[in-house]
Amino acid sequence: MPKTAKEIVEAAYKYMVDVMQIQAGKISNVRVEELEPVEAEGRKIWSVVLSYDAVGDFVFDKTRQYKQFKVDGEGVVLEMKIKKV
After folding, report:
1. Which of 27, 28, 34, 78 could share a disulfide with 49, CB 3.0–4.6 Å?
2. Are residues 8 and 70 in contact, defined by beta-carbon separation less than 8 angstroms?
3. Rounded CA gap, 40 and 44, in Å?
4. pLDDT above 90 as % of the chain
């Protein structure tokens, strides 16, 4: 059964948290920046962009980072990469 847009975003978020577990304490303020359905290889794929504040070695050393995900209609993350802005 196809997932809702909310479930697609949740899948991308959970994947990011799982993959970046070692940096979990340094990630905050996660936001959805983009959510777009696209056709690829004859099926619906979602493009999701999440952003977050990444803290460096010092609390005042924050940068906004962006990750782009491709998620299939069943909520399986197919790709995660750095989104250039």
Report:
1. 34
2. no
3. 6
4. 60
66 or 55, higher pLDDT: 66
- Radius of gyration of the chain from its Cα atoms, rounded to whole angstroms: 14
Give the span between the Cα atoms of 35 and 72, in whole angstroms.
Answer: 13
Q: Structure pTM?
A: 0.86
Q: List, for residues 60-83, the tens digit of each pLDDT value.
A: 778 899 999 999 999 999 999 999
Q: Which residue type, as a one-letter code, is found at position 76?
A: V
- Reading the block at residue 65, the tokens are 């980072």
Cβ(85)–Cβ(49) below 8 Å: no
In angstroms, the CA 5 to CA 81 distance is 20
Distance CA 30, CA 65 (A): 10
